[in-house]
Amino acid sequence: MLRSLVGSEMCIRDRMMLFESHADEILVRAKEKGIKVNLIASEPELLPKSTLNKLQHLAEQTEAYRCFTLNLCVSYGARSEIAGAAKKMAQAVAAGTIAADDITEQSLGAAMLTGGLPDPDLLIRTSEARLSNFLLWQLAYTEIQFVDKLWPEICQQDIRDAVYNYASRKRRFGK
């Protein structure tokens, strides 16, 4: 068990180093292409400080761009995001800035880390048929395409297939 935990911690540290090592490259490309980078982190305190600083800098430096938006979900969990939004709404009720009856799906959605962003139309989920605590609120009416491959194995044809499959579906949005 300890060996597994240590291996897991090393793996996480290595992944965080990947973010740090590629942040400058992402920044250059984002500026060239007019891409806004959003950092979506429901538990940013769990990130190494150097990683958090790099990612926050990346988001700040691209804040004004509007051609395309890249959302990076790092140190993110949907349940903690929903709890954070509920806490924010409860604090507003306690402060008297809103009434409890003013809490709606729309106001709770606006309090989410993704407030102001459109919900995804399509999620391509690789390797497993589960959501894994990812964007649970936002995926309510999202079409999901499961692909039995690991992410690095995904090719352009897999993306095309997913988009064609999506285009053939009749979206009902819960109706």
Features of this protein?
single chain, alpha/beta, 5 helices, 4 strands, 175 residues, two-stranded parallel sheet, two-stranded parallel ribbon
Reconstruct the topology from this structure.
Blueprint: H1 2-33, E1 35-40, H2 49-61, E2 68-73, H3 78-95, H4 105-111, E3 122-126, E4 143-147, H5 156-168
Parallel strand pairs: 1-2, 3-4
Structure description:
By secondary structure, the chain is of the alpha/beta class. It contains five helices and four strands, in the order H-E-H-E-H-H-E-E-H. It has helices at 2-33, 49-61, 78-95, 105-111, 156-168, and strands spanning 35-40, 68-73, 122-126, 143-147. Strands 1-2 form a two-stranded parallel ribbon. Strands 3-4 form a two-stranded parallel ribbon. Helix 1 (2-33) runs parallel beside helix 2 (49-61) and helix 3 (78-95) crosses helix 4. Mean pLDDT is 89; it is low at 1-6.
Sum this structure up briefly.
47% of the residues lie in helices and 13% in strands. By secondary structure, it is α/β, with parallel strands linked by helices.
Portion of residues within helices: 40-55%
Terminal CA distance reads: 47 Å
Main sheet makeup: 2 strands, parallel
Percent range for β-strand residues:
5-15%
Low-pLDDT stretches: 1-6
Q: What kind of oligomer do you see?
A: single chain
Strand count: 4
Query: Overall 3D geometry?
Result: globular
Structural class category: alpha/beta
Which radius of gyration do the C-alpha atoms yield?
Answer: 18 Å
Question: Helical element count?
Answer: 5
User: Strand order across the biggest sheet?
Assistant: 1-2
H-E string: HEHEHHEEH
Q: Residue-averaged pLDDT, rounded?
A: 89
